[in-house]
Design brief:
This protein is an alpha/beta fold. It is built from eleven helices and ten strands.
Amino acid sequence: MGYENIHVEDSEGIVTVTIDRPKSLNALSTATIAELSLAVARAFGDPAAAGKALILTGAGEKAFAAGADIFEMTRMSPPQALAFSELGHRLCDALEALPVPTIAAVNGFALGGGCELAMACDLVYASENAQFGQPEVNLGVIPGFGGTSRLARRVGPQRARELIFTGDRIDAKTAQRLGLVLAVFPPGELLPNCRAVAKKIAGKGPLAVSQAKKVIAAGSDLPLPAANALERQAFAALFGSVDRTEGMAAFLEKRPARFTGC
Ligand code: CAA
């Protein structure tokens, strides 16, 4: 099946998914979210996905995604809004649960659902023209794809309250200062830099990267002793992997490791 609202490119294991509705600033309609969910499941649904990485970005020069599709939302009843919110949450949860690293390449507006989608990615990089915000209160609603929880976890509850209560937009440098963005690049350099990071990570032990992702995510919601217990379990489990034998042998033999994800 082809896609109407996104396109997907798989180059050397780096899967780039581009939201492609530039006329509506890549607004997230139901169909777009369903296609994103399908693309993610297709690209990473089997063990052969080990060692891959995902980059999520927007088509055109203006937007990553300017939020949920407002035209579609004008017609929604509360039960329909709940189903729409659940769809967005499922996509964001699926991104967080992927066993591979995910990178948001934010190339313009990342507002509302767009900001929420970026925050569901492991790493967020932005172009100089990017703007972030949760402007839902301007529409009489609140974030619906996890913004109240993920923004608070990323920038702290007080700053999240300010951004969500005011609906203010912040530029890329401010987002970087707040810890929402890791680095800011000129527009033409954003994707090449994201690909370089993705490639670097994809060259590491895939089981180790995926365990690190899992332990950081689970551990951040746990008290320190429980988080550290998870780390010990994962650390020990990796000693049963072929990749551990290979990685350590490669170090001793002074050669690059050939990881297989086993
Ligand atoms: N949904 C649907 N269409 C959208 C859209 C959205 N979220 N954002 C922009 N568009 C459309 C505009 O309607 C416009 O279409 P037309 O050319 O057909 O009129 C086109 O994209 C270009 O937009 P503008 O002319 O407004 O461009 P601008 O440069 O003047 O402004 C903007 C850009 C500041 C991003 C402005 O478009 C804007 O404020 N958009 C809405 C942002 C927003 O409120 N997002 C949150 C949505 S709610 C949400 O996401 C809930 C949730 O958490 C799940």
